[in-house]
């Protein structure tokens, strides 16, 4: 019996303020709103690109994302090149987003892959990275992937 090929579908995130989160994810990731319900008790938004659903936002939580609890560690998005990472970094700085490290950093010592690490308005840890082009700067963590310890 062969195992069918799997790929990640969409990722669902709980948020505290749907309108704020929709604006953030649209500006940072250039997502389109595929469908949304912004009134009533069941508020949500389905976000994607070119008809492909990528992230769902559910307004059904309070407080901030708890990084010390089991669950999502971080959500990562790959872009084609490091120039796209720098463009995202510029948008993040314009929005006043919290950057975990100063600018684009490699995933590890000697790695050419790397990106920008940041949090959304609810403290959910996010990453935008390129598979190459980030190797000139020193890695911010030693002996482990940068993306694992932020």
Automatic annotation (TrEMBL):
Give GO terms: molecular function aspect only: dioxygenase activity; lyase activity; metal ion binding
The name on file for this protein is Catechol 2,3-dioxygenase-like lactoylglutathione lyase family enzyme
Domain of life of the organism encoding this protein: Bacteria
Q: Does the keyword Phosphoprotein apply?
A: no
What organism is listed for this UniProt entry?
Nonomuraea muscovyensis
Against Pfam families, the record matches this protein to: Glyoxalase
Per the database record, which ranges form the VOC domain?
7-131
Which residues lie in coiled coils? none
Q: Which InterPro entries match?
A: Fosfomycin_Res_Enzymes, Glyas_Bleomycin-R_OHBP_Dase, Glyas_Fos-R_dOase_dom, VOC_core
Arranged from A to Z, the UniProt key words for this protein are: Dioxygenase, Lyase, Metal-binding, Oxidoreductase
């Amino acid at each position: 019996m062969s195992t069918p090929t799997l790929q990640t579908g969409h990722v669902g995130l709980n948020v505290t303020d749907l309108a704020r989160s929709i604006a953030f994810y649209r500006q940072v990731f250039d997502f389109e709103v595929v469908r949304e319900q912004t009134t009533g008790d069941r508020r949500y938004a389905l976000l994607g690109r070119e008809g492909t659903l990528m992230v769902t936002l559910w307004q059904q939580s309070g407080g901030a994302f708890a990084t010390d609890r089991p669950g999502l560690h971080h959500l990562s998005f790959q872009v084609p090149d490091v120039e796209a990472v720098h463009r995202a970094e510029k948008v993040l700085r314009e929005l006043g987003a919290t950057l975990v490290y100063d600018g684009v950093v490699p995933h590890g010592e000697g790695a050419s892959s790397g990106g920008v690490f940041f949090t959304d308005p609810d403290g959910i840890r996010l990453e935008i990275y390129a598979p190459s082009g980030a190797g000139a700067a020193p890695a911010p963590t030693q002996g482990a992937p940068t993306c694992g310890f932020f």
